Amino acid sequence: MATKLLSLEANEANGRNTRVNIDTNDTEKLEYEYLKQKDIILKENEATNQTHFINQSTKLHKWAEDKLASIEKELKDTKGKIKELNRQALTTENIAEQTDIQLQIKAQEKKRRKIQREIFDIEEEIEELRDELIAELKKAKEQTITTDELLQSNGRYYKWHKLKIKRNY
Predict the structure, then answer these.
(1) What is the distance between the alpha carbons of residues 127 and 60, in angstroms, rounded to a whole number?
(2) Which of 109, 131, 150, 161 is the most buried (most CB within 10 A)?
(3) Total structural domains in the chain?
(4) Euclidean distance between the first and the last CA atom of the chain, given in angstroms as a whole number
């Protein structure tokens, strides 16, 4: 392939027709350089992918922690209110106050259940986002490398290695 490309006849400025011949050793050197460059590009791409996914994973982790911490604090506060209202209910002798306290307890219990459902929904959302990140990681492993045909001479195609790496995320 490279041998054919580099051994084409050329006309020099003085009109002489010259032919450069490439031996097997030169072809092996070119192939070695191609493989070396391919390896360098793949490693750089892998490092870029690694950095990207570490950043995405860190963002997801921080977002999840913040989201859960705030809702869990709200749940803890609501449970504290319920305990306090139950203490008040035990010490109150007035029926009107007892009724009012029981209504407040009922409202706080409803709020507690709603917060617990929200925590479950947030955990589901976190799991979905983590699944998306895992799918991206799997796709990133699938790198596509292509070699293009760049030159045609005398009806024949000569392949020259032009690396194209496709990132799948």
Answers:
(1) 10
(2) 161
(3) 1
(4) 33
Between CA 106 and CA 93 the distance in angstroms is 19
Quote the domain boundaries for residue 63. Answer: 2-166
Beta carbons of 71 and 118 less than 8 angstroms apart: yes
pLDDT in tens, 21-31: 556 676 778 77
User: CA-CA distance, 139 to 167, in Å (whole number)?
Assistant: 8
Work out the number of other CB atoms within 10 angstroms of the CB of residue 2. 18
pTM above 0.70, yes or no: no
Helices 95-141, 24-91: axis angle to 10 degrees equals 170
CB 77 within 8 A of CB 108: no
**Any idea which residue has 């219990």 for tokens?**
109
Spatial distance between the Cα atoms of 13 and 23, rounded to a whole number of angstroms: 25
Residue 149 phi, psi (nearest 5): -85, 120
Torsion angles phi and psi, residue 41, rounded to 5 = -65, -45
Region 94-118: what's the mean pLDDT?
A: 97
Task: Give the H or E element holding residue 20.
Answer: none
8 Å CB contact between 154 and 142: no
Question: Do the Cβ atoms of 71 and 122 come closer than 8 Å?
Answer: yes
